[in-house]
Design goal:
Structural class: mainly alpha
Largest sheet: none
Radius of gyration: 24 Å
Order of helices and strands: HHHHHHHHHHH
Number of helices: 11
CATH class of the largest domain: Mainly Alpha
């Protein structure tokens, strides 16, 4: 059974660890991120964290109820990095594009952590702030609540899905990643037109594109669809107002 987490004000270490640092949630999360980058998810354990921090491993339970709780905090920090320094411009589409690219980049900055956390819902402060911001952009732009939630759902899942996909590739051993990338040139570009006419016709384009993330393209397609929906909704509203006015006049 997980141990209860002690409130922040009651759990701060009064003395530095063996490394001279004072334990905090931020220090533990930053150390965990470094360990994930160096050793992968299998290397992240309470015992190893304690060693890395120069503290008794049991001390970590004063900050987190376990590794899963720490995992959620890591995901929350990645979202916080995406939000850091972001300011809205008043253009909902440009703002959503920027947020999406920031989220994707923040996760790819820590691919091992991204693979571990992209599918999780943390309910923590930065995640909640991001959700509030995205929904606010959509509702302020004029989308109905139902449309705003639908687009938000697609937007955030798309951002995190591509982050997880691209991070998984980056997290591969270098030799495996290079071998995967070489397949487009070594295999697809050499398929004959007689047996694979469509691949042969587009092989040079496949080689040029397929080792790069499709996220910017997918994001733009989502924004195109949302923009078209908003235009159609406004046109329908104007039409309905016109019909109502015409009906009133003819009465």
């Amino acid at each position: 059974m997980p141990k209860p987490v002690v409130p922040e004000e009651a759990r701060r270490r009064r003395r530095p660890t063996k490394s001279g640092a004072v334990l905090s949630e931020q220090l533990i999360v930053e150390t965990a991120l470094r360990m994930l980058q160096e050793h992968g998810s299998s290397g992240l354990t309470v015992r190893r964290l304690g060693i890395a921090l120069g503290a008794d491993p049991s001390t970590l339970y004063r900050y987190f109820s376990g590794i899963d709780d720490l995992t959620l905090a890591i995901g929350n920090v990645l979202v916080g990095r995406a939000l850091a320094g972001w300011e809205g411009t008043g253009d909902w589409r440009a703002d959503l594009r920027e947020l999406g690219l920031r989220i994707h980049a923040a996760y790819l900055g820590h691919p091992q952590a991204a693979v571990l956390t992209a599918s999780r819902v943390t309910g923590k402060a930065y995640e909640v702030a991001a959700d509030e911001t995205i929904l606010g952009l959509l509702r302020t732009a004029g989308f109905t609540d139902a449309a705003a939630v639908r687009i938000y759902h697609a937007f955030i899942d798309q951002s995190l899905a591509f982050a997880a996909l691209d991070a998984a590739s980056l997290a591969l051993p270098a030799a495996a990643r290079e071998a995967d990338e070489e397949v487009w040139q070594a295999t697809y570009a050499r398929l004959p037109e007689t047996t694979h006419p469509h691949i042969a016709a587009t092989a040079h384009l496949l080689v040029a594109r397929m080792n790069h993330s499709a996220y910017p393209t997918a994001l733009e397609m989502l924004l195109d669809s949302a923009s078209a929906q908003l235009v159609a909704s406004r046109r329908s509203e104007r039409s309905n107002r016109g019909e109502c006015g015409s009906g009133s006049g003819s009465g």
